[in-house]
Automatic annotation (TrEMBL):
GO terms for cellular component: cytosol. InterPro entries: NGN-like_dom, NGN_dom_sf, NusG-like, Transcription_antiterm_RfaH, Translation_prot_SH3-like_sf. Gene3D superfamilies: NusG, N-terminal domain. It comes from the Bacteria. Residues 8-107 form the NusG-like N-terminal domain. PANTHER family: RHO-INTERACTING TRANSCRIPTION TERMINATION FACTOR NUSG, TRANSCRIPTION ANTITERMINATION PROTEIN RFAH. GO terms for biological process: DNA-templated transcription elongation; transcription antitermination. This is Transcriptional antiterminator RfaH. Keywords: Transcription, Transcription antitermination, Transcription regulation.
Length: 172
């Protein structure tokens, strides 16, 4: 009975050229590489309105599954859209398989829910639209993950930090 050798592939991280992550994914796939680019819905302004766009969850980054022994790595860097492998010193960064599987498992939930992390910038004046402080103006400080924004409110002549859902804020 012939002895079959299983090809052990690991996930690595590539960077793409600016705004070329989709092109890099397509071109690498055409060459037969297993590539994964997690996608998510993002809210973007288009003609003054917020519209949902499907974009890379991690702009300029793609995962690629490779075997050190069986795969030809040479054409990867010269592929259209690809910039380079992510490295730590001289060592190419290996991404844990569990992380990639977890991203794949949760990608559907991410793509159904729009992420809007570009709407407000530090120092923007915002208006609260819900809750006990409805109608008050605040100053946007930062995002604290996808679920909360940190704003400064002036209450009784004192500046107070408040964590609130970005969905409850409007630009003033």
């Amino acid at each position: 009975m012939p002895l079959t050798q299983t090809i052990e592939r690991q996930w690595y991280l590539l960077t793409s050229k600016p705004f070329k992550d989709e092109l890099a994914e397509i071109e690498l796939s055409k060459q037969g590489y297993e590539v994964y680019r997690p996608l998510a819905q993002r809210l973007r302004k288009q003609r003054g309105k917020l519209v949902k766009k499907t974009e890379s969850l991690f702009p300029r980054y793609l995962f690629i599954a490779l075997s050190e022994l069986a795969d030809n790595w040479a054409p990867i860097r010269s592929t259209k859209g690809v910039s380079q492998f992510v490295r730590f010193g001289l060592q190419t960064a290996i991404v844990p398989t569990e992380l990639v599987l977890n991203l794949k498992q949760h990608e559907q939930a991410l793509s159904e829910r729009a992420i809007d992390l570009d709407r407000f910038h530090q120092g923007d004046v915002v208006i609260l639209t819900e809750g006990p402080f409805r109608g008050l103006n605040g100053v946007f400080m930062s995002y604290d993950g996808e679920e909360r924004a940190i704003i400064l409110l002036e209450i009784l002549h004192k500046q107070t930090k408040l964590a609130i859902s970005p969905a409850k804020l409007l630009a003033a």
